[in-house]
């Protein structure tokens, strides 16, 4: 790997990290599905004015997306394991954010509820400031959340919870240099020491699934998100779990 260090996220690094996330997800199938108007932004005025019925009458707004990701980053610094890969010239070239394990209880613990509430409140402020959700299809978002909840009920067998990989991106042009592996192995090693499994969702079979399998993950469910009212447009995500090293055959 080139001279890259893995460091905790800082307030100063948020802007660069957001840019890396946006560049990395530019062609992500899930992102394109949940922002159905995104392809129209920046094209002809006529196309840019066309809207999706589920996107609250707004085309994709990069400014709103930037504000939303910034809010998530600030939340992540308080509630998640959040690292960036920094090159020798201090350029941010990778980002990884893991939600820590949450005891699977019913009802939800106060700590988990407060963390969720804080993120929700930050997003409400963003929506108010930008007068909407910036092209996000609200109905598709909730289709995904429902499918995700069902997938986790089916696959999360350990009531102690799992480290949940929310974000894992490497800046285009820096991929294939071992940066993603370095970002992930820090938390994977911690999960092994503590005896926790890890969970992620990938919207790309190639090359992502093979990369994650090399780190010990296995596909446990193929999640189908279908917008029946939106012409049947669908997005497929691969749910993957990595057991603690002591429980895996490759240990």
Question: Which labels suit this protein?
Answer:
alpha+beta, 22% strand
What's the topology here?
Layout (H helix, E strand, L loop, with lengths): L3 E5 L5 H11 L4 H6 L10 H5 L12 H18 L1 E7 L4 E8 L10 H20 L8 H18 L6 E9 L8 H16 L2 E6 L2 H10 L3 E10 L5 E10 L9
Helix pairs in contact: 1-4, 4-5
Strand order in space, largest sheet: 1-2-3-4-5-7-6
Count all strands and give the number.
Answer: 7
**Could you say which structural class the secondary elements and strand pairing correspond to?**
alpha+beta
Low-confidence region ranges: 39-58
Structural features, described:
- The chain has 251 residues and is α+β, with helices and mostly antiparallel strands.
- It contains 8 helices and 7 strands; from the N terminus they run βααααββααβαβαββ.
- Strands 1-2-3-4-5-7-6 form a 7-stranded mixed β-sheet, with helices on both faces.
- Strand 6 (218-227) and strand 7 form a beta hairpin.
- The longest helix is centred in the middle third of the chain and has 20 residues, at 110-129.
- The chain starts with a strand and ends in a 9-residue tail after the last strand.
- 35% of the residues are buried.
Give a quick precis of the structure.
Helix content is 41%, strand content 22%.
